[in-house]
Protein backbone atom coordinates (compact mmCIF):
# COMPACT_ATOMS: atom_id res chain seq x y z
CA UNK A 1 0.00 0.00 0.00
CA UNK A 2 2.81 2.39 0.90
CA UNK A 3 4.58 1.60 -2.38
CA UNK A 4 1.41 2.37 -4.37
CA UNK A 5 1.02 5.71 -2.60
CA UNK A 6 4.64 6.64 -3.32
CA UNK A 7 4.32 5.78 -7.03
CA UNK A 8 1.01 7.68 -7.25
CA UNK A 9 2.58 10.74 -5.64
CA UNK A 10 5.51 10.63 -8.07
CA UNK A 11 3.09 10.50 -11.01
CA UNK A 12 1.09 13.42 -9.61
CA UNK A 13 4.30 15.42 -9.04
CA UNK A 14 5.58 14.79 -12.60
CA UNK A 15 2.15 15.59 -14.07
CA UNK A 16 2.02 18.88 -12.15
CA UNK A 17 5.46 19.91 -13.49
CA UNK A 18 4.59 18.95 -17.08
CA UNK A 19 1.29 20.84 -17.02
CA UNK A 20 2.99 23.91 -15.53
CA UNK A 21 5.75 23.88 -18.19
CA UNK A 22 3.33 23.30 -21.09
CA UNK A 23 1.07 26.08 -19.81
CA UNK A 24 4.07 28.41 -19.46
CA UNK A 25 5.02 27.93 -23.13
CA UNK A 26 1.45 28.16 -24.33
CA UNK A 27 1.28 24.57 -25.52
CA UNK A 28 -2.05 23.94 -23.78
CA UNK A 29 -4.34 26.68 -25.16
CA UNK A 30 -7.38 24.36 -25.23
CA UNK A 31 -7.36 23.66 -21.47
CA UNK A 32 -5.88 26.98 -20.34
CA UNK A 33 -9.06 27.87 -18.44
CA UNK A 34 -8.96 24.52 -16.69
CA UNK A 35 -5.38 24.80 -15.45
CA UNK A 36 -6.37 26.16 -11.98
CA UNK A 37 -8.81 23.25 -11.48
CA UNK A 38 -6.27 20.69 -12.62
CA UNK A 39 -3.68 22.22 -10.31
CA UNK A 40 -6.14 22.13 -7.42
CA UNK A 41 -6.87 18.44 -8.08
CA UNK A 42 -3.18 17.62 -8.22
CA UNK A 43 -2.47 19.53 -5.01
CA UNK A 44 -5.40 17.80 -3.31
CA UNK A 45 -4.02 14.42 -4.35
CA UNK A 46 -0.61 15.38 -2.99
CA UNK A 47 -2.18 16.59 0.25
CA UNK A 48 -4.14 13.35 0.61
CA UNK A 49 -0.94 11.38 0.25
CA UNK A 50 0.87 13.44 2.88
CA UNK A 51 -2.04 13.01 5.32
CA UNK A 52 -2.14 9.25 4.70
CA UNK A 53 1.63 8.99 5.10
CA UNK A 54 1.56 10.86 8.41
CA UNK A 55 -1.38 8.79 9.65
CA UNK A 56 0.48 5.56 8.81
CA UNK A 57 3.56 6.77 10.68
CA UNK A 58 1.45 7.73 13.72
CA UNK A 59 -0.19 4.27 13.75
CA UNK A 60 3.24 2.67 13.51
CA UNK A 61 4.55 4.76 16.41
CA UNK A 62 1.48 3.90 18.54
CA UNK A 63 1.97 0.19 17.87
CA UNK A 64 5.65 0.39 18.80
CA UNK A 65 4.86 2.29 22.02
CA UNK A 66 2.17 -0.28 22.92
CA UNK A 67 4.55 -3.19 22.28
CA UNK A 68 7.31 -1.45 24.19
CA UNK A 69 5.02 -0.88 27.16
CA UNK A 70 3.96 -4.54 27.21
CA UNK A 71 7.59 -5.64 27.01
CA UNK A 72 8.42 -3.31 29.90
CA UNK A 73 5.67 -4.84 32.03
CA UNK A 74 6.81 -8.34 31.12
CA UNK A 75 10.48 -7.55 31.79
CA UNK A 76 9.70 -6.30 35.30
CA UNK A 77 7.16 -9.10 35.84
CA UNK A 78 4.30 -6.68 36.52
CA UNK A 79 1.04 -8.68 36.34
CA UNK A 80 -1.25 -7.82 33.46
CA UNK A 81 -4.86 -8.78 34.08
CA UNK A 82 -7.73 -8.55 31.62
CA UNK A 83 -11.33 -9.35 32.47
CA UNK A 84 -13.70 -10.91 29.93
CA UNK A 85 -17.25 -9.63 30.13
CA UNK A 86 -18.72 -12.77 28.60
CA UNK A 87 -18.05 -16.43 28.01
CA UNK A 88 -18.20 -15.69 24.28
CA UNK A 89 -15.22 -13.31 24.53
CA UNK A 90 -13.38 -15.82 26.73
CA UNK A 91 -13.60 -18.70 24.25
CA UNK A 92 -13.01 -16.38 21.28
CA UNK A 93 -9.69 -15.31 22.82
CA UNK A 94 -8.57 -18.93 23.24
CA UNK A 95 -9.51 -19.75 19.64
CA UNK A 96 -7.61 -16.71 18.35
CA UNK A 97 -4.52 -17.88 20.28
CA UNK A 98 -4.44 -21.34 18.72
CA UNK A 99 -2.47 -20.18 15.69
CA UNK A 100 0.54 -19.02 17.76
CA UNK A 101 0.54 -21.32 20.78
CA UNK A 102 3.10 -24.12 21.32
CA UNK A 103 1.34 -26.09 24.05
CA UNK A 104 -1.90 -26.00 26.03
CA UNK A 105 -2.58 -27.20 29.58
CA UNK A 106 -6.33 -27.47 30.14
CA UNK A 107 -8.28 -28.36 33.26
CA UNK A 108 -12.05 -28.01 33.46
CA UNK A 109 -13.41 -29.40 36.70
CA UNK A 110 -17.08 -28.68 36.21
CA UNK A 111 -20.01 -28.62 33.84
CA UNK A 112 -19.58 -26.19 30.91
CA UNK A 113 -23.23 -26.62 29.94
CA UNK A 114 -24.51 -24.51 32.85
CA UNK A 115 -23.61 -21.20 34.45
CA UNK A 116 -25.09 -20.28 37.82
CA UNK A 117 -27.71 -23.00 37.32
CA UNK A 118 -28.70 -21.45 33.98
CA UNK A 119 -28.36 -23.01 30.56
CA UNK A 120 -25.90 -21.44 28.16
CA UNK A 121 -27.32 -18.84 25.78
CA UNK A 122 -27.28 -19.60 22.07
CA UNK A 123 -24.27 -17.30 21.61
CA UNK A 124 -22.38 -18.99 24.47
CA UNK A 125 -23.25 -22.43 23.13
CA UNK A 126 -22.04 -21.39 19.68
CA UNK A 127 -18.77 -20.02 21.12
CA UNK A 128 -18.18 -23.23 23.07
CA UNK A 129 -18.88 -25.42 20.02
CA UNK A 130 -16.52 -23.25 17.95
CA UNK A 131 -13.83 -23.74 20.60
CA UNK A 132 -14.28 -27.53 20.48
CA UNK A 133 -14.18 -27.49 16.67
CA UNK A 134 -10.92 -25.50 16.54
CA UNK A 135 -9.47 -27.64 19.30
CA UNK A 136 -9.97 -30.82 17.27
CA UNK A 137 -8.63 -29.05 14.19
CA UNK A 138 -5.30 -28.29 15.87
CA UNK A 139 -5.19 -31.78 17.38
CA UNK A 140 -5.49 -33.28 13.89
CA UNK A 141 -2.54 -31.19 12.73
CA UNK A 142 -0.46 -32.60 15.58
CA UNK A 143 1.74 -29.53 15.93
CA UNK A 144 0.64 -28.42 19.41
CA UNK A 145 0.99 -30.39 22.63
CA UNK A 146 -2.41 -30.49 24.34
CA UNK A 147 -2.64 -31.82 27.92
CA UNK A 148 -6.08 -32.16 29.49
CA UNK A 149 -7.43 -33.09 32.93
CA UNK A 150 -11.00 -34.41 33.08
CA UNK A 151 -13.65 -35.00 35.70
CA UNK A 152 -16.99 -36.47 34.73
CA UNK A 153 -19.94 -34.72 36.37
CA UNK A 154 -22.18 -35.87 33.51
CA UNK A 155 -22.19 -38.64 30.93
CA UNK A 156 -21.67 -36.63 27.75
CA UNK A 157 -18.36 -35.39 29.13
CA UNK A 158 -17.18 -39.01 29.46
CA UNK A 159 -18.13 -39.66 25.84
CA UNK A 160 -16.28 -36.56 24.69
CA UNK A 161 -13.11 -37.59 26.56
CA UNK A 162 -13.26 -41.13 25.18
CA UNK A 163 -13.74 -39.83 21.63
CA UNK A 164 -10.69 -37.60 21.95
CA UNK A 165 -8.59 -40.44 23.37
CA UNK A 166 -9.69 -42.97 20.75
CA UNK A 167 -8.93 -40.48 17.98
CA UNK A 168 -5.31 -41.09 19.02
CA UNK A 169 -4.03 -37.62 18.20
CA UNK A 170 -0.28 -37.87 18.58
CA UNK A 171 0.20 -34.67 20.62
CA UNK A 172 -2.84 -35.15 22.86
CA UNK A 173 -2.51 -36.37 26.47
CA UNK A 174 -5.36 -36.89 28.93
CA UNK A 175 -5.94 -37.99 32.52
CA UNK A 176 -9.06 -38.02 34.69
CA UNK A 177 -10.20 -38.02 38.29
CA UNK A 178 -12.85 -40.65 39.07
CA UNK A 179 -15.49 -38.49 40.71
CA UNK A 180 -18.96 -37.34 39.72
CA UNK A 181 -19.28 -35.00 42.68
CA UNK A 182 -19.58 -31.31 41.90
CA UNK A 183 -20.16 -30.21 45.50
CA UNK A 184 -16.78 -28.52 45.97
CA UNK A 185 -16.26 -25.55 43.61
CA UNK A 186 -13.20 -26.13 41.50
CA UNK A 187 -11.37 -23.43 39.59
CA UNK A 188 -10.89 -24.20 35.93
CA UNK A 189 -8.07 -22.73 33.88
CA UNK A 190 -6.09 -22.98 30.69
CA UNK A 191 -2.37 -22.22 30.38
CA UNK A 192 -1.34 -21.15 26.89
CA UNK A 193 2.37 -21.52 26.24
CA UNK A 194 3.79 -19.39 23.43
CA UNK A 195 7.34 -19.21 22.11
CA UNK A 196 8.53 -16.59 24.59
CA UNK A 197 5.82 -16.35 27.25
CA UNK A 198 2.80 -17.99 28.86
CA UNK A 199 -0.74 -16.76 29.46
CA UNK A 200 -3.29 -17.96 31.99
CA UNK A 201 -7.04 -17.93 31.44
CA UNK A 202 -8.98 -18.80 34.55
CA UNK A 203 -12.58 -18.98 35.78
CA UNK A 204 -14.86 -21.25 37.78
CA UNK A 205 -18.47 -22.31 37.50
CA UNK A 206 -20.47 -21.24 40.52
CA UNK A 207 -23.36 -23.26 41.80
CA UNK A 208 -25.02 -20.85 44.23
CA UNK A 209 -23.48 -17.43 44.36
CA UNK A 210 -24.69 -13.90 43.84
CA UNK A 211 -21.15 -12.68 43.12
CA UNK A 212 -20.56 -11.98 39.46
CA UNK A 213 -18.43 -14.64 37.85
CA UNK A 214 -14.91 -13.61 36.84
CA UNK A 215 -13.15 -14.78 33.71
CA UNK A 216 -9.60 -13.49 33.64
CA UNK A 217 -6.57 -13.39 31.38
CA UNK A 218 -3.39 -13.18 33.45
CA UNK A 219 0.11 -12.41 32.20
CA UNK A 220 2.61 -12.83 35.02
CA UNK A 221 5.49 -15.30 35.18
CA UNK A 222 5.22 -15.81 38.94
CA UNK A 223 1.45 -16.32 38.99
CA UNK A 224 1.53 -18.64 36.00
CA UNK A 225 4.42 -20.61 37.52
CA UNK A 226 2.20 -21.28 40.56
CA UNK A 227 -0.69 -22.49 38.38
CA UNK A 228 1.68 -24.51 36.19
CA UNK A 229 3.10 -26.27 39.26
CA UNK A 230 -0.43 -27.03 40.48
CA UNK A 231 -1.41 -28.28 37.03
CA UNK A 232 1.64 -30.54 36.70
CA UNK A 233 0.93 -32.11 40.09
CA UNK A 234 -2.75 -32.60 39.25
CA UNK A 235 -1.91 -34.07 35.85
CA UNK A 236 0.69 -36.47 37.24
CA UNK A 237 -1.75 -37.62 39.95
CA UNK A 238 -4.63 -38.32 37.58
CA UNK A 239 -5.69 -41.64 36.10
CA UNK A 240 -4.06 -41.78 32.64
CA UNK A 241 -6.28 -42.21 29.60
CA UNK A 242 -3.67 -41.39 26.98
CA UNK A 243 -0.01 -40.39 27.29
CA UNK A 244 2.00 -40.00 24.11
CA UNK A 245 1.11 -42.83 21.76
CA UNK A 246 -0.17 -45.12 24.54
CA UNK A 247 -3.88 -45.48 25.24
CA UNK A 248 -4.69 -46.99 28.64
CA UNK A 249 -7.60 -49.17 27.58
CA UNK A 250 -8.35 -50.52 31.07
CA UNK A 251 -8.66 -46.98 32.41
CA UNK A 252 -10.78 -45.99 29.43
CA UNK A 253 -13.22 -48.83 30.26
CA UNK A 254 -13.31 -47.72 33.91
CA UNK A 255 -14.15 -44.19 32.82
CA UNK A 256 -16.91 -45.49 30.57
CA UNK A 257 -18.42 -47.41 33.50
CA UNK A 258 -18.79 -44.31 35.72
CA UNK A 259 -22.30 -43.80 34.33
Structure description:
This protein has 259 residues and is an alpha+beta fold. It has two domains: 2-73; 79-256, Endonuclease, Chain A. 51% of the residues lie in helices and 20% in strands. The strands form two sheets. It has a nine-stranded mixed sheet, with helices on both faces. A two-stranded antiparallel sheet has the order 3-4. α3 runs parallel beside α4 (122-141). The chain starts with a helix and ends with a helix. The model has no long low-confidence stretch (mean pLDDT 77).
Descriptive labels:
259 residues, alpha+beta, Endonuclease, Chain A, 2 domains, nine-stranded mixed beta sheet, two-stranded antiparallel sheet, 51% helix
H-E string: HHEHEEEHEHEEEEHEEH
Let me know the largest β-sheet. 9 strands, mixed
CATH topology annotation of the largest domain: Endonuclease, Chain A
Helix segment count? 7
Q: Going across the major beta sheet, what is the strand order?
A: 1-9-8-7-2-5-6-10-11
**Unreliable sequence segments:** none
Helix content bin: 40-55%
**Could you tell me the strand content as a percent range?**
15-25%
What is the level-2 CATH architecture name of the largest domain?
2-Layer Sandwich
What is the molecular shape?
A: elongated
- The fourth-level CATH homologous superfamily of the largest domain is Endonuclease Chain A
E-strand count? 11
Task: Please report the distance between the alpha carbons of the first and last residues.
Answer: 60 Å
Just give the CATH class of the largest domain. Alpha Beta
Radius of gyration: 29 Å
Number of domains: 2
Mean pLDDT: 77
Amino acid sequence: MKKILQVSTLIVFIAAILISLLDLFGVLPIITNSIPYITLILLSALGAYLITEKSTKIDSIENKVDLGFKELLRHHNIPQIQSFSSLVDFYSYIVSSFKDVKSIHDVSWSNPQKFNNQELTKQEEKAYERFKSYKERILKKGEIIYNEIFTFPYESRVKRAINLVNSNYKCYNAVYYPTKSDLVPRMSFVILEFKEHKELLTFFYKNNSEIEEKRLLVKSDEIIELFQDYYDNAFNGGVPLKLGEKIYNKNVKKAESIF
